[in-house]
Amino acid sequence: MPAAPAPSPDGASPPASTAADASAQAGTAAPELAALPLSVRAGLLRALARTLGEHAGVLVDVADGETRLGAERLSGEIRRTQAQLRMFADIVETGAFLDVMIDPPDPAAQPAPRPDIRRMLVPLGPVAVFSASNFPFAFSVLGGDTASALAAGCPVVVKAHEGHPGLSDLTRDLAAGVLPTGALTVVHGRETGRALVTDPAIRAVGFTGSTSGGRALFDLAGSRPDPIPFYGELGSLNPVVVTPGACAERGADIVREYIASVTLGQGQFCTKPGLLFLPADHGLEELLRREIAAVPPAPLLGDWIGTAYHATLEELVTHPAARTLHLTPGHDDPRTSAPALLTTTAEGVRAHPELLRECFGPASLVVTYTSADDLLDTLHILPGGLTATIHGQEPQDETLAHRLSAALSAGRLIWNSWPTGVAVTHAMHHGGPWPSATSPLHTSVGGTAVARWMRPVAYQNMPEALLPEPLRSTNPWNVPQRVNGEFPGQWRPARATTVSES
Amino acid sequence: MPAAPAPSPDGASPPASTAADASAQAGTAAPELAALPLSVRAGLLRALARTLGEHAGVLVDVADGETRLGAERLSGEIRRTQAQLRMFADIVETGAFLDVMIDPPDPAAQPAPRPDIRRMLVPLGPVAVFSASNFPFAFSVLGGDTASALAAGCPVVVKAHEGHPGLSDLTRDLAAGVLPTGALTVVHGRETGRALVTDPAIRAVGFTGSTSGGRALFDLAGSRPDPIPFYGELGSLNPVVVTPGACAERGADIVREYIASVTLGQGQFCTKPGLLFLPADHGLEELLRREIAAVPPAPLLGDWIGTAYHATLEELVTHPAARTLHLTPGHDDPRTSAPALLTTTAEGVRAHPELLRECFGPASLVVTYTSADDLLDTLHILPGGLTATIHGQEPQDETLAHRLSAALSAGRLIWNSWPTGVAVTHAMHHGGPWPSATSPLHTSVGGTAVARWMRPVAYQNMPEALLPEPLRSTNPWNVPQRVNGEFPGQWRPARATTVSES
Questions:
Q1: A22/A14 Cα distance (integer angstroms)
Q2: Which CATH number fits domain A19-234+441-453: 3.40.605.10, 3.60.21.10, 3.40.50.2300, 3.30.70.1060?
Q3: ipTM higher than 0.90?
Q4: Nearest-by-Cβ selection for B465 from A395, A427, A493
């Protein structure tokens, strides 16, 4: 997505804490938060979810005034944000996220006797979270980064997005009625955000936004005297590949669903499909034109989004290797979207990789291919993405689909559906190879997002009374404990068959 | 540890591949290695362990010629390296390291229906490994970084340490008889190493060495157009705290064990205790002097180690806030160690934090404290470490020990034993907060080291035949699968009691 605007000079937002004040508060809260029993920590997350629901009316009003996203979408986003908080509460309560391992002593071990070694994850400490413009709830003050960090036991300092400062402060005030002092603070302004990334008390950073903005903060985090982890979710092209078989079988349905996915929320999603690969003889151009033309322009999140969208679109429209299928009139008004569709060939993409850039808004590029090799050669040069989608036929396309899966570099591979709409589940991965994320190992959505904010500690020969509760042999917190690498008892699933060697 | 020397100008080592050649070979091998069934991958690791054992004689001879470490130590290190390879073979075979999660579809889910989401870890791709001077086997060509990367399914390009180039090439040649082409290559030279870190094919870097050298390569990896994960295991002070009770009860034993730990392998371990905190009235100065004086000087790994050791030692010896307890004569000869012991007060450390620097070699600093607060105030300013050790009495010291544990920032907390000798087990953590490691989330020793070289991929609505084997519902590879966040059947340990709320 495009970079956020510079802070407005009129000082209309409430006075912000300094980064140093906020970080100091978080630092004071850190040991208290880390020491809470898991059931209490889970209770805080559930109470935050309840509070959001109880104040949904005013939250939607304030959010709509600042983001123009509409009451229906915003109400749904609050429910998603509540679901995220509750999922992390469940995860905290089971204790599996502590990744407890116990290796009992072994005096007979070779090449040397082994002491008692027990390991678990502990909170990193205060975390900075940069919230997103396009999800004022789900990726903002009480969004997934904050929920997962609180689940880990880390206090959070949120850098509010300039697109919804009032909502950010309101959300903070509601959370203050639930959380211990210092567990969640909100700061405003770009310079304050930069100061946060270099503040000595901050131990990790989460970020959702543009590749350029994320890269600048990633570099800043890495330049500290003590570099800290920086988890940025940046831009993504989200290619969709349609096999010849699928195109012949249900090309018209695919086109209609594609246009709906491209223009959902005016294309202001990091999972918007930016590329559609169709066989050269697809015969769907008229339908593509008709479907995109039928989407009415609508307000964008902010003028800065519109300005960036129209500038990127202009470059694509005037590119000699791309042909415009449809450009909605009024595309010079930064306040409204202007849905657009362009087309080029797979060969054109290889010759002009500058066409491979995210255009945050309701625009997409249809790429035609002449053969499987023509398609695969082009997929191999795509940058890493959050998602990649295949529309195919099964079992007919099995061989081709395996080759496509191997060629697509993405954090989520989707079959016969669409990348927009990210399910919040244990297994969801919302990340991917650069530039979709700054770390390919981590996710900003789903149960494992909590692992970003924790570090392992091993305890050697520690007496039971000095061990943290989750590591004790009596297991007073009833958490899953692996012993010598395996859970006691039933580790293999009951339905397991023999190991295949093929 | 100190930075490695510049490459010798005489070109005596065998001709090295360029970084680009080696990376290209690794890139070609990557899909083949990733596609191997787990049992075959495990078999390769076991075959490497066998090969090391079969050629132990010549390996020890070549290693001793280059490192002066002696046959006994080197033979033991080969056995440790074999144990590492076999542990990762076991880990590969169970399949738990793939971290498989399956969330079945839920059409009734709120706020939106949920598709089928399945997640596993996949190999990152070619990995660069910078081997260490002080472990020519266990942290070198077939050491823990390489073993864990191969376990993950990643080809490895090893940058050989300048201290044992011949051994590195010999080990590579032996491995070539076992591994697929391109799965393991070795390059030489500092500039080649830097080229490796910026090579587009390399997807992650492992490093063991000095803080300065590691920082330079960390910065290089972060400056790429596409930054990659850099896992550096750097320097550590490894403080040891002796409580007043433990000092009174068994101070003399502790001193003898401390000197043995400080001078083990001439102090050339990253876990060497660099600080010993004793109560001010310890009365052990004569014993400390006698014990350290009884340790004979011995050859160091290389002149560059000796030069750095003696330079750091000179700064400590001439520091006005430190008093020399013992300095072995001959400390100006870079070819031999000169065991040394200094002392200062906790207050002196707080006033002169420049005393808190790693001195790689057989030297350590005894710090006296006057009260628990005096001790804790000083522990709070220590940099992050690989280890921290408490010698105390149980149950008498319980309260103090809890405060000490909370104050010590380290990856491994040790009770009444010593940090040297890192057990290679599932739960071992060998890493820690900066500057002991570049990433506090990861370890270079122990079962979870494999996670450094893998990234998650989620599969959405993918038909059974298109899913990787570990994600299929039929589970043909018989790997542990979490469903909706939990393993089917017995997830909680059988001995579990109720959850404590206190």
A1: 15
A2: 3.40.605.10
A3: yes
A4: A395
